[in-house]
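U., I forgot to send this yesterday:
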Amino acid sequence: MEFGKILSRSWQIVWKNRVLWIFGILASCASGGGGGGSGSNFNTGDTGTGQLPPEMQRFYAQVERFFATTPQETIVAWVVALVCVVVLFSLLIWAIGVFGRMGVIRGAILAVGGKTFSFGSLARDSWGRLGGTLWMNFLLGLIPAVVAILLGLMALVSVASVSGADVGGLAFLGLCFIPIFCILVPFFIAYAVYIQVANVAYVHDGLSATDAIRKGWEVFRSNLGNIVILALILFVGGILVSIVLALPFIAIAVPALIGFASGGDSMNTGLIISGICLVIALPFLILANGILQAFIHSSWTLAYAQMGTAKKPAKRKISVR
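Result:
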């Protein structure tokens, strides 16, 4: 497989057909790396809330008053409702991501064939088969979900069996789980690549969900070496691009950090400056990440076009006379 040609051709397709950027932005919703968020916990030791700005002091006071005066049943109902909203919103974001990935794959296929397309045509094609690919990705997601649940239960049972004061026992349990995670990390990475191949098979070959799962596994297994090399190239390249994209946001956080360190009115000023810079820079980050996702999915589509259609050498028949 000529990886250089695949990557260069994929970049040409993405750069020429900028409508794929939009679908790349949508696909980033289901990529796991589409959003960047960072949380910081600044611990000031025994410092009380007296050093906080008056606005934050009033906010914390209102929160405490709410929990003190609201019945417990109402709080539980609000928590359950909030969890339901978060789950539904997560499912919606996931479906949008799958829809965007279908659009990029379909657009790359049409571009290779020299056909023109628009956002509307790709959206209609992707929407027509969205139900099948959602079902396929749901089935493929059951395995890592079951593994994660089993690991969580094992961790809970193990921690519950050890006394909280037994630091040595907890450390021993942590050491026992390290080999498991070392095995599961490459497994999950390989499984994610297999899911990518199955999604390309679903769109490229027009298969059903179950047939695409089988075809994806067949292509993945028979082209394991090429898939590993391409996955490493895209993985390492994606990390490097993500680091470059993250550098401006480190600079954006500097005013806020300085404000927190200074305290007083400087805190509000630093937060305002960082907030304004974030609002300005965020659209560029979203666009750059959309281009990156479009390039990655296009590269897998072009690679599949070679791997999935490669014919095995025919066996020579020997006639016995």
